[in-house]
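Ops channel
N.P.: pipeline sanity check, posting one input/output pair.
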């Protein structure tokens, strides 16, 4: 084991809750397993919750280490949340056996919202049956400090010790739009030190340090005239919604502008040409399926793709084949940004970028992770439209789209 993993084991030796906020590639899965081994006499079985798309890779990774002498059950958050039948079956089984669980919540950002079914159902299992709870994540905050609140509440409400409303009033500044009466909150830094002091005993953080370089390059592309016209029309609609203080419409029109930029033929043709000319194994992340399909249509050599229509079994076989091949794999952020080990390549193409920093960071760490032997190159394509600058700013500031809406000079930015 690495030194950072041993430090985590030592820190949580006497605790029954732990948050391993370790960057992707630092070995948090192994650390969670060893925490379970360390407490092996105090629980009956492990319940490991994770994004459904990561379960096969997770199973393969766990099989690499010494097996625990206790059973491990893996389940996707999506299954727990979307299938009432499965959830009730799980509860019925647990109520009959009443096992003492070692509960692992992998990619715990999936539990950042206490109003979701996945949070409430996970929490119900945690409250009734968990002797130990371990959170795993590389990027614990993707929006704001409310992400931390709900993850800590999954460990124990005593950690922060405030109700949701009291915490919001402590960590955020309240604003009221006098014209519409709308209320919103903006995070402020004045109580960050207090928050850190509350969670510090239960959190272990670890940055990824590799003996290789992460090289980032941006390639701007001038959009087609058709794209510019569509963009101009949608921009006009956006400015109208801003004038009317309609946040829902603002979000909708921003989404349209973003998709217009992502699906621009000039950008996608250039990406396809580069992939054809280079003809090598690489990852191509796309935000939209239409964008992915337009790039794929223009590639003259071999390629493969994964999106929401690809079954889990097919995803596994596609990745295994790609790892042995010499061609690009086009994958949407929703299917490939989390939990996969794709270090068979040292080149990642970002055909477009997400608003969310955590998703972007996770995508990079599919290849830039422990075990990678080469420098990793990130090539980011950017359509020369104002919306691309907003996305850049959102990622650079690690802020939220909502905060960006409140603090943007729209006329100059777009």
């Amino acid at each position: 084991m690495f030194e950072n993993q041993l430090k985590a084991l030592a820190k949580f030796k006497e605790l029954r809750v732990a948050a391993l906020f370790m960057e992707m590639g630092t070995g948090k899965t192994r650390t969670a397993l060893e925490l379970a081994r360390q407490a092996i006499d105090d629980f009956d079985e492990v319940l490991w919750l994770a994004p459904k798309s990561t379960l096969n890779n997770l199973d393969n990774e766990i099989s690499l280490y010494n097996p625990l002498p206790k059973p491990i059950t893996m389940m996707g958050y999506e299954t727990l949340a979307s299938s009432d039948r499965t959830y009730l079956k799980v509860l019925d089984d647990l109520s009959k056996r009443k096992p003492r669980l070692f509960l692992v919540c992998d990619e715990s950002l999936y539990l950042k919202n206490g109003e979701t079914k996945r949070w409430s159902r996970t929490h119900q299992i945690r409250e009734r049956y968990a002797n130990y709870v371990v959170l795993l994540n590389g990027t614990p905050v993707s929006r704001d400090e409310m992400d931390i609140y709900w993850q800590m509440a999954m460990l124990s409400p005593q950690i922060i010790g405030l109700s949701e409303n009291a915490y919001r009033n402590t960590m955020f500044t309240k604003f009221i739009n006098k014209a519409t009466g709308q209320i919103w909150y903006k995070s402020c830094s004045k109580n960050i030190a207090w928050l850190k002091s509350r969670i510090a005993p239960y959190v272990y953080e670890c940055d990824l340090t590799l003996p290789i370089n992460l090289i980032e390059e941006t390639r701007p592309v001038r959009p087609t005239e058709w794209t510019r016209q569509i963009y101009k029309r949608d921009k006009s609609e956006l400015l109208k919604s801003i004038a009317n203080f309609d946040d829902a419409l603002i979000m909708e029109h921003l989404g349209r502008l973003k998709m217009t930029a992502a699906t621009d033929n000039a950008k996608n043709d250039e990406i396809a040409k580069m992939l054809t000319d280079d003809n090598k194994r690489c990852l191509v992340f796309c935000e939209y399926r239409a964008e992915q399909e337009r790039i794929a249509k223009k590639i003259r050599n071999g390629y493969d793709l994964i999106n929401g229509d690809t079954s889990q079994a097919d995803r596994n076989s596609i990745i295994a084949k790609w790892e042995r091949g010499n061609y690009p794999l086009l994958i949407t952020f929703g299917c490939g940004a989390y939990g996969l080990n794709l270090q068979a390549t040292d080149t990642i193409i970002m055909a477009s970028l997400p608003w969310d920093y955590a998703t972007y960071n996770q995508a990079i760490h599919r290849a830039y992770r422990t075990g990678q032997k080469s420098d990793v190159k990130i090539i980011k394509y950017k359509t020369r439209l104002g919306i691309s600058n907003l996305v850049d700013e959102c990622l650079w500031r690690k802020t939220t789209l909502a905060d960006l809406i409140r603090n943007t000079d729209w006329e100059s930015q777009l």
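N.P.: looks fine end to end. The longest strand covers residues 130-137.
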